[in-house]
Amino acid sequence: MKSKILDVFFDLDHTLWDFEKNSALAFDTILKKHKVDVNIQDFISLYVPINIKYWKLYQNDEVTQEQLRYGRLKDVFDHMQIEIDDEMIHFLAEEYISYLPQFNHLYDGTIELLEYLKPKYRLHIITNGFHQIQNNKLVNSNIVHYFETITNSENAGVKKPNPEIFNYALDLAKCSKETSIMIGDNMEADIEGALNVGLDAIFFNEHNLETHPNIKQVNHLLDLKKYL
């Protein structure tokens, strides 16, 4: 693989950018700021799986961006039996989006890996996130300069695993799928999506999930050096 790969595509959230840690910090900040009386640990433990559910729906075009942002918070407050009116939920949803990119924790090994890869390959991002938010994350965490192109679902008009977003990213990068590889944490969106268009892929399997033995995978980002 090392001899033929020229372009490396990364997912952003849960792959390089530590979404769960940064998200928890953003919620802790805004809930305290607006005096919402919740136990933050209880809130986050409910929010994480609910957010995953809503992103799955969003990925499959079953909810809109606004429904995603509102619904995940509404469901958490309902589960916690906390009465908050819709106007406040919409306000908190916007506050969260505003504060989220201000926290910039990256996965262990991110900078070392990017420094290692940058002289050898052209690096790119493919993300299902929203343009402005994802760009702010890259800028604020000081890694935007490592990437030649940034493809997001907002600009591409479709979301991973739709083949069109991968083709859009390849066209934007002016590269070939035969000499490119995708790295991400989501088996369906990142790995199967890439493989289905003939793009090689490596699964960032942070949680040691059981996977097909033929899927290339790493449990730590620096293990990618074995492949690249």
Automatic annotation (TrEMBL):
Q: Which GO MF terms does the UniProt record name?
A: 5'-nucleotidase activity
Question: What is the top-level taxon of the source organism?
Answer: Bacteria
Coiled-coil-forming residues are: none
NCBIfam families reported in the protein's UniProt record: HAD-SF-IA-v1, YjjG_YfnB
* Protein name per UniProt: Noncanonical pyrimidine nucleotidase, YjjG family
UniProt organism field: Flavobacterium microcysteis
Lineage of source species: Bacteria, Pseudomonadati, Bacteroidota, Flavobacteriia, Flavobacteriales
